[in-house]
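Support request, please re-run this one:
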Amino acid sequence: MSQSEWESLCDGCGRCCLNKLEDWDTGEIHWTNIACRLLDSKTCRCRDYENRLEKVPDCIQLSPEKMDELHWLPPTCAYRLIHEGRELYDWHYLISGDRESVHAAGVSVRGRTITEFGLKFEDYENHLVDWPSKKFEK
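Re-run finished. Output below.
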């Protein structure tokens, strides 16, 4: 798969750009509604994708080689689904032909996030959410 084909798998949900907390004892991932400072909350796209790795040091570039390590990706993530040999959801734009279908299906973070600016790390646990929803798990 070429880099452009790989990149085309992104459904634009924005969930990978949410801050997550990991329980040190269990390894369990807890999702927050706190978005990376580069996430555009209306489009669910990075405001500076080309320079994100320099601007956000803990941003992770997704690649096929890293998929076994990225257990925190949401169950709806196309990268995860393809890696696990599963099919894309019908709302994924590669199936629907419509980039808005991820938002219409209620899968994206559009309208459900706050920015990380001004938040102290110790306040993150006050912003835990139950995303990604289990209703979409196959």
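The helical segments are 3-7, 52-55, 78-83, 93-96, 101-104. DSSP finds five helices and five strands in the chain.
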